[in-house]
Design a protein that fits this description.
This protein is mainly alpha-helical. It is built from 28 helices and 2 strands. A two-stranded antiparallel ribbon has the order 1-2. The longest helix has 60 residues. Keywords: Membrane, Transmembrane, Transmembrane helix.
């Protein structure tokens, strides 16, 4: 009788053998644990290996090489369809590995987790191994419950696993059940058996050790607090705006369309913060203490479009706010008299509050935007080459049980797989030199046409501005009617909104002419061209406003006229957005279905719609100094846009023909909002505050050289009233008045963004290295098994 081969691997003892889990970073510990696994499994099969070899020696060699169907699927690196002929011992060890046990059979899985629970229970019940001497440390082999897998039935293994689970705390027991690779029916069966065994134990414990009154009250308080905490978590989750609607959009149309609605939600939050700051510190106090102003004209309804008339002398615009100081004892005393000596209440300077509220709102917005840009850069790290395997094997949520949620998750996973496949296919298309040269020529011509059209639009806006300016002066001289004077105000916003609505279609045609392979590149091109158009038009408008080329009546501030212009631009932009949704999506869908008899529907243009949001938000930031309630108007506009766009998307649009991931596009959108939009608006308002002279007859800064001078006067008054705070005046002069502080803040902001970009790139390199390490670990295992097989063949030849 032939003797079974004895496999002896000398494993050096070191610090790794003290009972701790080997670290993945320590290659020596990792290979040592692999050798220990081989030693344990080889000792288990040593008794039955002799009989198995005798039986298989009588069979065909082909059958000898395939004792396990799962083991046949192990290919050797570097070989095509030829499978290696491993020994039975190697295949038995390979089949006993945890990675090969999953999916083999139910009994093996239950036995594996039964062994794991037993080890965890005994490890937690004994002192740490580091505190014991080496001779007193127990071996884990004596805790192996599956010494003879052939004799243990499925029910016995299940009962053993239930007994082991009962010895764990409830939280650890639930975690063990969640991590088991079993189906939901088997997990419910195990949970039911565990709950059935826990019932009598609880009754027995309650019979012998009843609660004391103090313990019972403590138990009730803990249960009540836990229930209250769970209800609060449920309310917080339900209070998230548009939670289910966003999941529905993402599952049906993909992350590219979802990025538009997430961006809209971000803008709504930013406007709410700005509106809240201005409302608390400026608007409410001015409404409580209104100035003595002229009676407004009657409301006719045209004010909703023009922003003039009844709205001119209201809280909406700059000219309504006064330059008084509330609770000032010297303001009520006659001129030349001495102020009362009694300690007055805290004075409140409305002009200073107006200036600081605008500054604080911009500061909070800047911090949130920088945080959003950093978070978007961190989230963009996840778009790597391994996402396809993750989406296939690790995406499904087994806790989803509702039919609607299951359908939504299926659609979401299918859409994400389409996006990944389209991006991977676009990367794997090589082009020849002639094709690259032709593509560059087409792109150059497209850019020349785009820049020429942008220049023509800017010149058209300039000439229309001059013409409207002349007509307004003539109407004031002729004393025309109110309707004619307000109707001419809508001409310039109408022309600008019409250009913003028509030119993106030309840019889309140019992008189609370029024939970009990747839909992300096509969106980049369209976004950049639309951004250039809107930026040039807004720069021209800002120049005209700062040069005071606006026609106002004698009782109005020029700041109020600028605020009215910005209000009209916002309203006209909203109207054209509704018209584009009506004709570009609804009417076009009816034409395709009723007339052309096709099942195609219009696609949702993400780039154009996102740029419309950025354009509207830029108008809001430009006008927050001239119209403090403009963020409230923007909030109302965004709320209406969300529900209108969502309804039109669900009823009129189809999924993108070329799905694409929006992880990098979301980063681009928030970056465009931060730099060209917010930075440009901040530069415009900074120049207005530091260099432009305010109106002489109205507004909170009347009679001053610049708006910034109000801060200087407040510091001088504060220094005279209390000489002990001269340090505050020094801080104000050397930090706020000096431009070096602004320069340092800008450098810090750029450094933070640069640091986050470098962190993202470093994490991408680490992810690539970890993926290579995973591949190398798989090759190491295959190499070890191949060496083990060769050792077994050499031993067999000796016998």
């Amino acid at each position: 009788m032939s003797q079974p081969p004895s496999i002896t691997l000398h494993v050096p003892e070191g610090s790794e053998s003290d009972g701790q889990e080997p670290s993945p970073d320590n290659e020596r510990a990792l290979h040592t644990s692999f050798h220990q696994l081989i030693l344990e499994q080889s000792s288990l099969i040593e008794a039955g290996l002799e009989l198995e070899l005798q039986e298989r020696s009588r069979e065909s060699p082909a059958r000898l090489a395939t004792p396990d169907p799962c083991a046949m699927a192990w290919p050797e690196p570097g070989q095509g369809e030829d499978h290696p002929r491993y020994s039975p011992a190697s295949l038995q060890i390979l089949a006993s590995m945890p990675s090969r046990t999953i999916g083999k059979n139910l009994g093996a899985i239950i036995s594996q987790y039964c062994n794991r629970t037993a080890r965890l229970r005994r490890r937690s019940s004994r002192p740490p191994l580091q505190q014991l001497c080496r001779t007193a440390r127990p071996s884990l082999r004596q805790y192996d419950l599956e010494t003879d897998p052939a004799t243990a039935t499925l029910e016995e293994k299940r009962s053993q696993l239930v007994k082991e689970l009962l010895s764990f705390p409830p939280s650890q027991r639930s975690h063990m059940l969640l991590t088991m690779p079993l189906n939901l029916a088997e997990k419910r069966n195990l949970r039911r058996q565990v709950s059935g065994h826990r019932g009598p134990l609880r009754q027995h414990a309650h019979h012998w050790a009843p609660f004391s009154p103090c313990g019972w009250s403590k138990f009730c308080v803990i249960l009540g607090c836990r229930g209250l905490w769970y209800r609060l978590l449920f309310l917080l989750r339900a209070a998230q705006p548009w939670h289910y609607a966003l999941k529905q959009i993402g599952g049906r149309f993909g992350s590219s369309v979802l990025s538009y609605f997430l961006f809209l939600k971000t803008l709504l939050m930013l406007n709410f913060l700005s509106f809240f700051i201005l409302l608390v510190f400026v608007v409410v106090l001015q409404a409580v203490y209104p100035p003595a102003s002229v009676s407004p004209p009657p409301f006719t309804g045209l004010e909703l479009l023009t922003g003039a008339g009844y709205f001119t002398h209201s809280l909406l615009y700059y000219g309504y706010y006064s330059n008084v100081t509330l609770n000032d004892p010297c303001s009520s005393s006659p001129k030349g008299s001495v102020c009362p000596l009694a300690a007055p209440p805290l004075p409140y300077n409305l002009p200073l509050a107006y200036l600081f509220s605008v500054g604080v709102s911009f500061l909070v917005t800047c911090i949130l935007l920088v945080y959003s840009v950093s978070r978007s850069f961190r989230e963009s790290v996840g778009s790597s080459a391994g996402d396809l395997a993750i989406k296939v094997f690790c995406t499904w949520d087994f806790k989803v049980i509702q039919r609607r949620s299951v359908k939504l998750q299926c659609e979401n996973i299918c859409t994400q797989l389409k996006e990944l496949l389209v991006e991977r296919r676009s990367r794997s298309r090589p082009q020849s030199r002639c094709q690259c040269l032709g593509h560059c020529v087409v792109m150059l011509l497209a850019w020349l046409l785009a820049l020429g059209s942008v220049s023509g639009c800017v010149l058209a806006v300039h000439y229309i501005w001059e013409h409207v300016h002349m007509v307004q002066q003539e109407q004031q001289v002729q004393n025309s009617g109110r309707w004619q004077q307000e109707a001419i105000l809508l001409v310039l916003p109408l022309v600008v909104s019409l250009l913003n609505a028509l030119m993106p279609h030309l840019f889309n045609l140019l992008a189609m002419w370029e024939k970009q392979d990747s839909p992300v590149t096509q969106v980049y091109m369209a976004t950049i061209r639309n951004l250039i158009l809107k930026t040039m038009v807004l720069m021209l408008l800002c120049y005209q406003w700062l040069s005071r080329s606006v026609v106002c009546s004698t009782e109005e501030c020029w700041e109020t006229c600028v605020g009215q212009d910005l209000y009209r631009f916002m309203v006209m932009d909203f109207i054209f957005t509704l018209l584009d949704t009506l004709f570009g999506e609804l009417i076009w869908r009816l034409i395709l279905e009723k007339r052309l008899k096709t099942k195609r529907r219009p696609e949702f243009d993400v780039a154009r719609n996102v740029l419309e949001l950025i354009y509207g938000q830029t108008l809001t930031w430009l006008g927050i100094l001239f119209a403090p309630l403009l963020p409230a108007v923007q909030m109302l506009k965004l709320l209406l846009l969300f529900y209108i766009k969502k309804t039109s998307l669900m009823r009129n649009c189809q999924s993108p023909s070329k799905p694409w991931q929006a992880s990098r596009m979301s980063t681009m959108f928030i970056t465009l909002l931060c730099f060209p939009s917010f930075l440009g608006a901040a530069a415009f308002l900074s120049y207005t505050i530091w260099s432009v002279r305010p109106s002489e007859t109205c507004g909170p800064f009347r009679g001053l050289e610049t708006i910034y001078e109000s801060g200087k006067r407040w510091v001088l008054v504060l220094e005279k009233s209390n000489p002990n705070i001269t340090w505050f005046a020094w801080v104000y002069q050397h930090l706020l008045e000096d431009t070096s502080l602004l320069f340092c803040m800008s450098v810090i902001l750029i450094a933070v963004i640069y640091f986050n970009v470098q962190v993202v790139r470093g994490r991408q390199r680490v992810i690539c290295l970890l993926q290579e390490q995973i591949v190398n670990e798989g090759e190491d295992k295959a190499f070890l098994i191949q060496k083990l097989n060769s050792v077994w063949k050499q031993r067999r030849r000796r016998f």
